[in-house]
Specification:
With 318 residues, the protein is an alpha/beta fold. The chain has one domain: Aldolase class I (TIM Barrel, Alpha-Beta Barrel), CATH 3.20.20. Helix content is 42%, strand content 14%. Strands 1-2-3-4-5-6-7-8 form an eight-stranded parallel barrel, surrounded by seven helices. Helix 5 links the parallel strand 3 and strand 4. Helix 3 packs antiparallel against helix 12, helix 8 runs parallel beside helix 9 and helix 11 runs antiparallel to helix 12. It is globular. The N terminus is likely disordered. The structure holds zinc ion. The site of zinc ion has 6 residues, from loops.
Length: 318
């Protein structure tokens, strides 16, 4: 089905467009216990890129001994056929990662950098203070800009930290502003361990939009750890957020606590948005079939609801 068909289902040409970045190939595969072969990844990523998704995070340039699930990142980029209109991003932890990625500059379009809004989480995750992370990321963002790459910065634990509890929104705004000033054109806010609630999200986005101004795109990255992922999406939509990240099949369990679910499922997000009359450009059955294929490859049921139920067969917008 073409993009036009998907949009027609979601209310036609007048439907407001929501941007979605599929992060399953990075955030999903990284946090699942299985190691997928590069061939299987190419099958799944290719299917997702042909589903109408406009943004996809493909891999991360991290040390292979730290994240063996993504050790084939360079090979994946080399072998992946580009699809017109699909923006490919890679996650970059530091300058050394950027060095590796830039050897394949023509194989992707965006970089994502990351840090945490809480000192404790940042130190446990990357063994640096937030100030040290910001100093390193400034250099990464500058060099990525020089290379003509679009720059995205993601702030983990934006809605709460498993170690420190509440993360003040003013602190998130301060870090986001520093990232904007360092060249980030888009800032993602990660609910890394699923602590956000809809009321908090409703208060959060207007504060961040006000702090960052109109030239920065704000993206919500919710996890479904406690089943509140789509409720948080609705709150973010109502608060003006128009960009979201999600993972096909709900891939991407969270290592802490073990067995907890991670990202919201792309097919659940797309189904809800289309039923609400928004356009995404994504062909929902195509995403469902990619998730079904992932389920077969991995050999156990994945967490997505729409994968089980299928698309809604009647719609007021059809
Ligand atoms: Zn995530």
């Amino acid at each position: 089905m073409s993009t036009t068909d998907a949009d027609a289902h979601a209310g036609g040409a007048t439907a407001e467009r929501i941007r979605i970045r599929e992060v399953g190939p990075r955030d999903g595969f990284q946090n699942e216990p299985e190691l997928l072969s590069t061939d299987d990844k190419l099958t799944l990523v290719g299917a997702l890129m042909r589903s109408g998704v406009e943004r996809i995070e493909l891999t991360s340039f991290v040390r292979p001994d730290v994240i063996p699930q993504l050790a084939d990142g360079a090979d994946l980029l080399d072998r992946l056929e580009p699809v017109p209109g699909v923006s490919r991003s890679v996650l970059i932890p530091n300058e050394r990662g950027l060095d590796g990625a830039l050897l394949r500059r023509d194989r992707f379009d965006e970089v994502s950098v990351f840090l945490s809004a809480s000192e404790t989480h940042n130190r446990k995750n990357v063994n640096r203070s937030i100030d040290e992370s910001l100093a390193g990321l400034r250099r990464v963002l500058e060099r990525a800009g020089d290379a003509g790459l679009r720059r995205v910065a993601v702030i983990a634990t934006s809605f709460g930290c498993p170690y420190e509890g509440e993360v003040p929104v003013a602190r998130v705004a301060e870090i986001a502003t520093a990232l904007r000033d360092a060249g980030a054109e888009e800032i993602g806010f990660g609910d890394t361990t699923g602590m956000a609630n809809p009321r908090q999200v409703a208060r959060f986005f207007p504060v961040l939009a006000d702090a960052l101004g109109p030239d920065v795109e704000l993206t919500a990255h919710f996890h479904n750890t406690r089943g509140q992922g789509l409720a948080n999406v609705l709150a973010a939509l109502d608060a003006g957020c128009r960009s979201f990240e999600s993972s096909f099949g709900e891939l991407g369990g969270c290592p802490v606590p073990a067995g907890a679910t991670g990202n919201i499922a792309t097919e659940d997000l797309v189904s809800m948005l289309h039923e609400m009359g928004y356009a995404t450009g994504i062909d929902l059955p195509a995403v469902i079939s990619a998730s079904r294929r992932a389920q077969e490859i991995i050999g156990r049921p994945l967490g997505s609801h729409t994968l089980v139920a299928g698309p809604v067969q009647w719609s007021p917008h059809a």
